[in-house]
Amino acid sequence: LLQLEQSRKELHDVHQANHHHWLQLEQSRKELHDVHQANHHHWQLAEQRQNQLEMMQRSWSWRLTSPLRMASRAIRVFSNIPTALRHALIAKTKLLLDHANLYVNHRPKLKHTALLLLTHFPTLKARIKVAAATSSFAQGAEPTLPTNSVILIAHAQEVYADLANLTPRARQIYVDLKDAIDRRQKELNLCA
Fold this sequence. Notes:
With 192 residues, the protein is mainly alpha-helical. The chain contains eight helices and no strands. The radius of gyration is 38 Å and the shape is rod-shaped. The N and C termini lie far apart (141 Å).
């Protein structure tokens, strides 16, 4: 009878241990289910964000602002470059622009087309004129501007600085008037 009672107690302990393990297993299953639910929720969020990102990158505004983003990245990279290398890059860029200037100036149709395009961007046109004038002096080439070109360059910079404060329409009117005056002056010079 004592042995039977001891076996019964052992069986009860085993049953209790099994029940405890079963409860732990159920709790682990519940935790695993909760983790699976959370993972599924995060996967859905990631899928939604990916779709939004793809839609944004296909939008016109994203495509239009692409040059601005590239320019800002280039400026960040350029600002982190050591000074000596930066000066070398600027010198190479000026050399490249001088060659481009020569290339365009020796092709009348290309020059005409470029000037037509630049009439829409008067500030850029003025900067290109100033850069071309200063680079020709720097290389010792024959100046393309009159002898008082330094005064003209300073005046052009002042004029275009003032133009920067105008609206795009006002700048276009100014450029159109300036072109008309230049054409008229050429006509008068041809007649004389």
